[in-house]
Fold:
Amino acid sequence: MRPIDSIDNPRLIANGLRHMLYEMSLPAPSYFRIAREAHLVLYRSMVEAVKGSGNLAVTGRFPKKPTFKYQQGNEPWSEIHRVEVAGCKKAWRFSDPSPIGPPNEDLPRAEVPEDRLLGFYDVLAMIQTDCFMGQFMHSKTVRVDNEAMATLEWLHESIRNVFEHFVPKHYSASVRELLAAGDVCLHIAGELLYGSGNVRLEHTVGEEIRDLFQRGLSQRSASGEVM
Structure:
């Protein structure tokens, strides 16, 4: 027996994918659990893509109507702010950057009152924004269209929250919708981990996660449960 055990974000992503594969292998899988695990895989993948070399970018709290002024390299100063997403009540994204003049004074440092992970919707907005994703020359944002944003809002509010804060009564949801929401999560997570250019996975863990993604897709195809 090992004297200690440890976890990190990439291994938690791998664990989530293994849980999904196990659930899908059962004679009567829980599609609620599959969708919930896909949500967690996406959340952790988003965090991994925007956290940079430290965790300061993903801890703390955003204000209710966040506005950021920033400069990338020698480019002009820009400003972004929260905008609503058609068809969504809670999910949101940042606006396109607008050029502004240099600030007249130093911008105040963002206070991090506690070691608290940013919320799901906040990180979902960040992955679509150069301000947070443009960490390297080859970095790419991951765009999420309005339909996918509405799907993720439904998954977060009506499935994940029910699963996490279950009140003992009967809940039901369409298997097709649960699987479709899981597909959206895994597609975005894969883009973040292997297409954004921001994630540096340890080789063995990176290959394991890639293999788990491929096995999950193959198992879905074999079962005929493909949207």
